[in-house]
Amino acid sequence: KSQVPDLPAKEISPSYDWFQTESLVTIVIYTKQKDMDSESVIVDYQDGCFRAEIVIKDYSYLLHTELSHEIQEDITGLYYRKCQLISKVDVTHDTKLYCLMLPPGTHLQVPIGHHVYLKQTVTGTEIVKPYTPVLETLHSNLKESLHPNNKYIYIMIKIYHTGLFTPYFNCLQIGDCVSLSNPEGTFKKSQLQELEELFLVAAGTGFTPMIKILNYALTNITNLRKVKLMFFNKTEGDILWRNQLEQLADKERRFEVEFVLSEPTCEWTGKQGRISLPLLSEFVKRSLEDSRVLICICGPALFTEQGIRLLKDLNFSQEEVHGFTA
Ligand code: FAD
Ligand code: NAD
């Protein structure tokens, strides 16, 4: 904090401003004089006090500022607020849907395709991991939610027993708090405008960004003829929101879903394997030669990288492919 010095009441009185980064406080003094030279300014910084004497014509002006304290937090970094855990609901054997409530003074709406960071202290160390907020459900009236969406944030998280963050997150009790950051991300809603065909290629929890995209596209993009989701998982039991996806496909003629398993049982009659050129070339086909298409891809880093490479080989342009990466 700075103290405004007593300046003589003359029209040539200088003014000043300050700004700071992580390591530096910069004080700018505006004298409105063209002929200022280094002899006209004397600056001292001693015992936490900054003192600048500026000589303009026959007057001397004094700026005396006290730095109130050391910079304590990274003010250029992400801002966190504490959110309360309201509910947790099983999605599969290892994945849950968590509802977090924003504090009363916060308004925050996470843009489509963006993620937030959750932060918690685990045995004395701060751990931060990114998560992509989802909707409460894919059901029926997609625009309406049981809760107004500016107070609650839904996050679908897979728990890894040997993981650094998720086992501790899963131990939170209803009513406990977790720190949640401002959103980040490169996806732009405008990428969906004027779209005719949307292809979503997801693996495991890489499904999370697809949820809001799917909902937004079906509800808001008038020219949209088709939305297809190709969803890669290890086993049937790993498929997130399978029932909801199948119900949506039944009721919404523009939407199709295809499940691909890498570790199926012998009863599985659907598609098998990992991401490959034959699977993608069959799935991602323009229905018209000049259709406006977007392909969104998200999953383990190697899955996403491989997918982007294969789509390039299939002659889709950079603008037509959005990969969700860290
Ligand atoms: P980690 O400690 O990271 O470990 C994960 C697994 O990998 C464990 O099984 C662990 O044993 C194994 N492992 C760790 N290190 C190694 C190693 N060196 N070699 C071999 N195996 C290893 N996840 C979600 O569930 N939902 C989301 O919505 C979501 N959104 C994301 C958004 C973005 C932008 C990104 C980048 C990731 C997202 N993730 C999401 C993943 C999430 O951020 C975490 O990576 C995940 O929750 C695992 O965290 P963890 O600390 O519990 O596990
Ligand atoms: P998983 O281990 O259950 O695998 C799901 C499927 O992904 C597999 O069946 C397989 O088809 C495919 N796959 C896995 N490893 C592969 C590889 N090396 N090469 C090609 N295909 C592979 O997946 P999970 O445990 O749910 O992990 C999901 C991943 O998605 C995590 O790594 C997470 O960080 C990432 N993710 C990223 C974002 C983002 O926005 N960047 C968002 C959510 C999740």
**Can you give the helix content as a percent range?**
10-25%
Radius of gyration: 27 Å
Which ligands, by name, code or SMILES, are bound? flavin-adenine dinucleotide, nicotinamide-adenine-dinucleotide
- Please give the count of helices: 5
Top CATH class of the largest domain: Alpha Beta
Widest sheet: strand order?
9-8-11-6-7-10
**Largest sheet properties:** 6 strands, antiparallel
Please state the second-level CATH architecture of the largest domain: 3-Layer(aba) Sandwich
How many distinct folded domains? 3
Global geometry: elongated
What is the terminal-to-terminal distance?
A: 37 Å
N-to-C order of helices and strands: EEEEEEEEEEHEEHEHEEHEHE
Class per helix and strand makeup: alpha/beta
Number of β-strand runs: 17
Q: Can you give a write-up of this model?
A:
The model has no long low-confidence stretch (mean pLDDT 89). The chain has a 6-stranded antiparallel β-sheet. Strands 15-14-13-12-16-17 form a 6-stranded parallel β-sheet, with helices on both faces. A hairpin with a 2-residue loop joins strand 8 and strand 9. The protein has helices at 166-170, 208-220, 242-251, 277-283, 301-313, and strands at residues 15-20, 25-30, 41-46, 49-56, 59-66, 80-90, 95-101, 116-122, 125-131, 152-158, 177-181, 197-203, 226-233, 255-261, 271-272, 293-298, 321-323. It is of the alpha/beta class. It is elongated, with a radius of gyration of 27 Å. It folds into 3 domains: 1-75, no CATH class; 80-181, Elongation Factor Tu (Ef-tu), domain 3, CATH 2.40.30; 189-323, Nucleotide-binding domain of ferredoxin-NADP reductase (FNR) module (Rossmann fold). The chain is built from 5 helices and 17 strands. The two termini are 37 Å apart.
